[in-house]
């Protein structure tokens, strides 16, 4: 199935266009929710108690059709400093933000904290809205906000002065959002699904309903997904996007899924629904830190925010900008994932890029320093060649669950196993050396059993030893022989 192109139907129904998703950000009471209401014509979908009090405590959701015909969904986040975790749950899965700054109050500490989180997550797309421009001249607030934003991942975003009360600037803001939506990347609809749940409740008929931002991939009625971290398999009984029931939907989209077979109490915010067999479920990752302090100055206990999840982690510095994170719960991750580390006590954040989801143990003396030197040369998003070089030999499926494609340089051992060419040549030389040493130590028992050879080389499967036993090495009756050893006629076996 080819990736969707902008404007094509992604559900198999004519007229169902690609949806993009934007999260709000900014200081509390700077008009984010009022702006969403003015842009969409509806209140952000949140509990009735919040609407009565006029105070945003949780995530809200609304959507609209832009002048181009494209649909845009909003995730409205709380601005109060006590609800940073909730704010990050809303921003964590979206590709763009609408940053609000009030003209009559200007830049505020919570605005800065939200922008720091956006920068640490590496969000590169957005629009700056100077709100409440009917209450004060927006010029100063606009200039101040542009200066603050320019030095972050958002860079020189488009800025608009607007008033949700009078309607001033709403047309200009809508046009800016339309241009933003046109610039956003269209994700691969064939990518593995990872839907971070940001809300869950019991729907009609006692079915479990979960909502979230589908960043990529496709979910269809009848699909089987894995609920993490519990590991249960669940069935999708219904799909909805923008209030419309669908047979299937592709990311990016705000979606609601009706699930069958969900254990009670295991599907709340921070859980994830993923494609089975397509993600590494791990409690240990090596990361590169960015934005803020060197890894050695970060707290040893922090909170990792990715998607809607907020997970306590232990941090072990490796190099100046690399660290080992130990998570207290298993998360579905890929190499190249971006996340945020937060120290609530200091209100400090740091962005991280996941370099390895299957890192080596660091138990030997000097192992941490050696690992730091190795990671120093890695890019923020290692590719399949880099990963295969580190592991030497991998099953094809191992590369996929780590989030990497098989590199063209990989040596195909058979239909299942891949090897780094340099590592494979080294293994062949090591096997020859092991056979020579075995022959010296056991002159009356020539030949090394396949299982012994596998263990000495640290290989995961005996079939790999069979493939290594190429001339001048010989294979017979489950043993590998050095060239000088008498073994009779050669033969091949394919033991597992």
From TrEMBL:
Domain Tr-type G: start-end pairs: 17-186
Entry's localization field: Cytoplasm
InterPro entries, per the entry: eIF2G, P-loop_NTPase, T_Tr_GTP-bd_dom, Transl_B-barrel_sf, Transl_elong_SelB
Keywords: Cytoplasm, Elongation factor, GTP-binding, Nucleotide-binding, Protein biosynthesis
UniProt cross-references to SUPFAM superfamilies, sorted A to Z: P-loop containing nucleoside triphosphate hydrolases (SSF52540), Translation proteins (SSF50447)
PANTHER family in the cross-refs: EUKARYOTIC TRANSLATION INITIATION FACTOR 2 SUBUNIT 3 FAMILY MEMBER, EUKARYOTIC TRANSLATION INITIATION FACTOR 2 SUBUNIT 3-RELATED
Name the UniProt record assigns to this protein: Selenocysteine-specific translation elongation factor
């Amino acid at each position: 199935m080819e990736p969707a192109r902008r404007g094509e139907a992604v559900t198999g129904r004519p007229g169902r266009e690609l949806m993009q998703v934007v999260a709000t950000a900014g200081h509390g009471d700077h008009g984010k929710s009022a702006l969403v209401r003015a842009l969409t014509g509806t209140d952000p979908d949140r509990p009735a108690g919040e609407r009565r009090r006029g105070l945003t405590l949780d995530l809200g959701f609304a959507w609209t059709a832009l002048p181009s015909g494209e649909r845009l969904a909003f995730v409205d986040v709380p601005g109060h400093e006590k609800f940073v975790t909730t704010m990050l749950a809303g921003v964590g899965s979206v590709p763009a933000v609408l940053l609000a700054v009030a003209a009559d109050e200007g830049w505020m500490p919570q605005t800065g904290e939200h922008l720091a989180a956006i920068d640490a997550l590496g969000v590169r797309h957005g629009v700056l809205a100077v709100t409440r421009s009917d209450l004060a001249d927006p010029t100063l607030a606009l200039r101040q906000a542009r200066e603050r934003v320019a030095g972050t991942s958002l860079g020189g975003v488009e800025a608009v002065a607007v008033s949700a009360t009078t309607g001033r600037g709403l047309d200009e803001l809508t046009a800016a959002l339309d241009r933003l939506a046109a610039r956003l990347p269209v994700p691969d609809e064939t990518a593995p699904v990872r839907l971070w749940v940001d809300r869950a409740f019991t729907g009609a008929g006692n079915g479990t309903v979960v909502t979230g931002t589908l960043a990529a991939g496709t979910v269809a009625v009848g699909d089987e997904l894995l609920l993490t971290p519990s590991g249960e398999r669940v069935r999708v009984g219904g799909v909805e996007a923008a209030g419309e029931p669908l047979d299937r939907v592709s990311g990016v989209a705000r979606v609601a899924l009706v699930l069958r077979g969900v254990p009670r109490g295991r599907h709340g915010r921070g859980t994830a629904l993923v494609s089975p067999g397509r993600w590494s479920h791990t409690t240990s990752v090596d990361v590169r830190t960015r934005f803020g302090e060197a890894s050695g100055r970060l707290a040893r206990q922090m909170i990792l925010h990715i998607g809607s999840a907020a997970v306590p982690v232990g941090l072990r510095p490796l190099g100046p900008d690399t660290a080992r994170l130990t998570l207290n719960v298993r998360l579905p991750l890929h190499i190249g994932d971006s996340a945020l580390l937060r120290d609530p006590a200091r209100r400090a954040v740091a962005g991280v890029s996941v370099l390895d989801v299957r890192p080596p143990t660091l138990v030997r003396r000097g192992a941490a320093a050696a690992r730091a030197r190795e990671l120093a040369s890695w890019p923020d998003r290692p590719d399949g060649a880099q990963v295969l070089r580190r592991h030497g030999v991998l099953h094809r499926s191992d590369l996929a669950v780590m989030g990497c494609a098989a590199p063209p340089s990989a040596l195909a051992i058979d239909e299942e196993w891949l090897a780094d060419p340099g590592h494979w040549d080294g293994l062949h030389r090591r096997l020859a050396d092991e056979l020579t040493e075995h022959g010296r130590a056991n002159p009356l028992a020539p030949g090394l059993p396949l299982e012994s050879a596998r263990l000495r080389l640290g290989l995961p499967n005996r079939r790999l030893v069979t493939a290594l036993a190429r001339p001048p090495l010989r294979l017979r009756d489950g043993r590998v022989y050095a060239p000088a050893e008498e073994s009779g006629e050669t033969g091949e076996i394919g033991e597992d």
